[in-house]
Specification:
alpha+beta, five-stranded mixed beta sheet, about 50% helix, binds adenosine-5'-diphosphate
């Protein structure tokens, strides 16, 4: 439309003019730092709980090595140790060193602070990592722990944090199971840990048969400092920290009572790797 200058001025007067756009920026460094510290203390609490079991697990290879060395020394002193015998004994010692180093390395990786940058990883690897630590820490000694892994696609986040969440859920399941068995000695405590794919989501579930959570408390278990464990045992932080960690990965953590126990469900968005068609040069090469 062609408008006269006066008409244009009237239009502006009627509608008003956009004079400026204002933006507000907020720096959440302090919040992020506090969250990282909380995650780290929760991790250390898990390692603390496993310390006795891990110490025992590292002591085993040390004992085997001590016996192998004592026998080798005796063999060398009385001249019965031929090269074949020595090779065999040294091989055993090397195996034990590898075993102890693996345990220590896993603890070191688990204990350190998470990187700031996200990464791509398969939840199945985090599940296996968590189960190895839990078994090394002897936390599920009298419990039948079954793993059902589906070969999950990758998700975005930190593998050690998902490992931490799974360990928290396993430790809780273990506590609930041991408590339930005290009341019902005939109970055969079991945990089923499985991964599944549902559409573009990866699902990880921890199911136990300890009787479940009181329906009146179901909504409260993710609250910080909510615990039903005796003073000195429970901090009430495990589930609230786990909830935050799964949230940071763009996922959801929920709980329901089913199959005679509690079922914790982690839902994570799978990362679809976009297919890029090969460049003409690559095509020629192949
Ligand atoms: P904490 O383990 O220190 O108590 P959590 O936040 O990990 O803290 O758990 C909060 C509460 O949730 C527990 O005290 C317990 O009452 C309940 N809970 C968690 N997992 C289970 C489970 N598998 N079976 C029954 N109750 C559970």
């Amino acid at each position: 439309h062609v408008r006269s200058r006066r008409q244009r001025q009237m239009c502006i007067r009627d509608r008003g003019k956009l004079l400026e756009v204002q933006a507000v920026g907020r720096d959440d460094t302090e919040l992020q730092k506090a969250r990282q510290m909380l995650n780290q203390s929760a991790k250390m609490a898990v390692l603390g709980e496993m310390a006795t079991g891990l110490a025992h697990e590292i002591n085993q290879p040390l004992n085997v090595m001590r016996i192998a060395l004592t026998n080798t020394l005796k063999g060398v002193e009385n001249g019965s140790a031929n090269p074949e015998y020595l090779k065999n004994k040294l091989g055993r010692i090397e195996q034990q060193i590898t075993r102890a180093a693996k345990i220590i390395n896993h603890m070191r990786i688990f204990g350190r602070r998470s990187e700031v940058e996200d990464d791509l990883f398969s939840p199945d690897d985090a599940i296996e990592g968590a189960v190895t630590l839990i078994r090394e820490g002897e936390l599920v000694r009298d419990i039948d722990l079954t793993l059902q892994l589906c070969g999950t696609p990758q998700v975005r986040g930190h593998a050690d944090q998902l490992e931490q969440v799974i360990i928290n859920l396993l430790v809780n399941a273990k506590d609930a199971l041991l408590g339930a068995r005290d009341k019902r000695p005939e109970l055969e405590p079991s945990i089923l840990l499985r991964s599944d794919c549902e559409g573009d989501k990866v699902i990880v579930q921890v199911q136990d048969n300890a009787g479940g959570i009181d329906p009146l408390l179901l909504d409260r278990v993710f609250d910080p400092f909510f615990t039903t464990k005796p003073v000195g045992k429970g901090t009430g932080l495990g589930l609230s920290v786990s909830y935050g960690l799964v949230n940071q990965m763009g996922g959801k953590l929920s709980v329901s009572n089913q199959h005679g126990g509690a079922c914790f469900r982690i839902e994570l968005p799978a990362v679809c790797l976009l297919y890029t068609s090969p460049s003409p040069r690559d095509r020629q090469k192949s």
